[in-house]
Amino acid sequence: MPDLKRAGAAPGRCPICGRPTRDDYRPFCSRRCADVDLSRWLRGGYAIPGETEDRERGEAPTPEKPRPEET
Length: 71
Ligand SMILES: [Zn+2]
Prior knowledge:
The protein is mostly helical. 38% of the residues lie in helices and 0% in strands. It has 3 helices and no strands. The protein has helices at 2-7, 31-42, 51-59. The longest helix is centred in the middle third of the chain and has 12 residues, at 31-42. The chain is rod-shaped, with a radius of gyration of 21 Å. The site of zinc ion has 8 residues, from loops.
């Protein structure tokens, strides 16, 4: 297993695509993967689940799910 020998020095693997990371884009392998991670972050991929849903529900209730409590 040649990989074991390198494991100590290797910075790691890109969490997005699994390729070896590059110093320039650590902990990612490329600018693209860094962008992917960032956009996930901004879009709430790592945010508290449900927060966005709650807000959407409050502002515009979905017609598919009528709330019986309101009638
Ligand atoms: Zn990557």
